[in-house]
């Protein structure tokens, strides 16, 4: 599987400048998972995102302005748990300076959090306040961990959770090798959102979270904990 990911990663750098091994392809996999998880959180968890914090800041403003379809509590919970995950990854990073090793460790923890969220969805569903609180907290913390670890890797054009800069670069820059990565990131997020939304609306939270867990597990296993880094 790692060899497949390495070949796919090479295609994301058509100019032959890939110095990141399999990581670029792994980040596309995580972008796909992000789309799935944000579909579940927005459609089923009080209209919040667990990955897109820009959206939550705006939703918090709308909720405070009086929009009854949005929740101040849910927006604050998503923002707070995402920040807690990012803070935790930062503290781990001070003890694990190798970036790939940090990414492997953090992604393994992230997989555990998504597994816990899946367990909550299977046993308690997603409609009660307690279940929604647990799901937002688990998924938000996992996405904060992911975002901080990916930020440390600094693989160009592959952030896994936000696309504003990616879309801006696609529109503003002349076509070139980076265009492949940017289009892959946009396509992965869209595909994840489409698949996650379809599964959630037709089957529920647990069937939508199951493929997200499989993707995060794939990402966690693609970079061994013993891996060295820059």
UniProtKB/TrEMBL annotation:
Keywords: Membrane, Transmembrane, Transmembrane helix
Transmembrane stretches, start-end: 21-50, 70-90, 102-124, 130-150, 183-202, 208-227
InterPro entries hit by this protein: DUF1275
Protein name: YoaK family protein
Organism: Streptomyces nondiastaticus
